[in-house]
């Protein structure tokens, strides 16, 4: 059985996302988002009942510029992508030894990120 992509389902560039994250390139990350994209982040300081919500590229840009300006390493793994969804795990390490693991899922539209959900855990024993 063969499957064909619908013309409106442009391919998402998962390799570009990986490069942008691993090289802390906020501009390259931002280029992957729709103008009206939404991002939700759940972590130790933002529980499911009160997550961080960012709406639109300007808000998402401010977030990624802050993250990419921090001194830390990023490694992307366990990545998978279809025309409408992508998911991956990002592992970060700060110079002081603090580890952060983020599981991210993306809803895609025309090869761009429409909705982004991050659930992240911080290593409480090494993070201040």
TrEMBL record:
Origin superkingdom: Bacteria
Coiled coil: none
UniProt-listed InterPro entries: NTF2-like_dom_sf (IPR032710), SnoaL-like (IPR037401)
SUPFAM superfamilies: NTF2-like (SSF54427)
Domain SnoaL-like positions: 16-116
The protein's name in its UniProt record: Nuclear transport factor 2 family protein
Organism: Roseomonas alba
